[in-house]
Amino acid sequence: AMEERPYRSASGAALALRRRQHSASCRELAVCCPRLQLRSLSAATSAVWLAAYGLFVLSENSVVLSAAIFITLFGLIIYLHFVKIDQESLLVIGSLGIQVTSSYASGKESTTFIEMSRVKDVVINEAIHMQKVIYYLCILLQDPGDPQGVSEVVPLFQSSKPRLDCLIEVYKSCQEILAQRKTAPQSS
């Protein structure tokens, strides 16, 4: 069963946290951003095209119009395919690892898989950004050479930037699965 709860991002935008429990040691947590509003998109496009038309009237150079149309379409394709993320999700599988997926507005997905043996911990960090404290969730990777050390920090939900209350929910879910791993007998 999937449960969904409303939250907000650090900037105040509406987000939704979807949680799905596949089994005792497998959970999926997804932060969904608001979909791209067609209204704001057409407003931006119209503004660029009107400005271009104004320049065309003044300069009587049709290249200006073609360039404006080309730039807006090209910009839109880049934005949908590489910038606008609709959903960021974690699939936490106790015995295997953590899969981090970003789903773009164009339908493209980018996925990273981190083996559980490399996961040292999942923590909430705080950072100061323009006189504001922002919180972010990250996976600490085990340093192969030093059992106490951390070799890398993998930040999560970098696009949606959920607020602390949402991060705590995700953190608790991850910790429950990580705790099972510590109590489970190690298979050789």
H-E string: EEEHHEEEEEEH
Query: Considering DSSP H and I runs of 4 or more, what fraction of the residues is helical?
Result: 25-40%
Task: Tell me, rounded to a whole number, the average pLDDT.
Answer: 90
Radius of gyration: 22 Å
Question: How many domain units?
Answer: 2
Number of strands: 9
How many helices? The count is 3
Low-confidence spans: none
Q: What is the general shape?
A: elongated
Report the biggest beta sheet as strand number plus sense, adding barrel if it closes: 6 strands, antiparallel
Your description of this structure?
This protein has 2 domains: 2-34 and 87-183; 38-83. The chain is built from 3 helices and 9 strands. It has helices at residues 38-59, 62-83, 164-183, and strands at 2-8, 14-23, 26-32, 85-93, 97-104, 109-115, 119-129, 132-143, 146-155. The strands form 2 sheets. Strands 1-2-3-4-5-6 form a 6-stranded antiparallel β-sheet. It has a 3-stranded antiparallel β-sheet with strand order 7-8-9, with helices on one face. The mean pLDDT is 90.
Please name the defining characteristics of this protein.
six-stranded antiparallel β-sheet; three-stranded antiparallel β-sheet; 3 helices; PIG-H; alpha+beta; membrane; 188 residues; transferase
